[in-house]
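Database export, one record per block. Field names are fixed; values are copied verbatim from the stored entry.
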Amino acid sequence: MSMKKFIYGFFGETAGRLIIVSWNWLWGISEASEQEKEPIDPDPTHMKEIIREMQNSVDNLTQAVAVQVNNYQQVEERYSAKVQEVKDLETKAKILKAQGNTEAARLTLIQAINLEKILPRLKEAVESTEKHVNVAKEELMWQKEKLEIYKSEWANLQVIHNL
């Protein structure tokens, strides 16, 4: 059993594909060149089943990408909210200091500084999530292109078989 089949069996097709694509991307391996070597079965009934399976896979991948995009938006919103919170605390500290309440201003600045300490980690999470979303979108686009190629081949085979 190949590692690819094991991953697909253990994680499922969509997650498995995402893992394989991510791994190949990290190591600079082009999976497209491997899959282009696969011969296309000339049997139109078999092609129809392959196309149906591919369409289901593309649909599942589309849903997975939508979930990832949603997660990315949530992480980005959290980061933006924390950045805004830091700005608000700094403004509040300035106002408190102008009013002569230096103790409250100092405590407010401490809160702002503590929040600023976690901003780099949140920014890294946003960037990491964005990279994963982009990889997933590229995989989805590639799968859609592959599906269209198979549909075109299937239509051509039907024409040939009807002659």
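Remark 1: Residues 33-37 have pLDDT under 50 and may be disordered.
Remark 2: The longest helix spans residues 102-162.
End of record.
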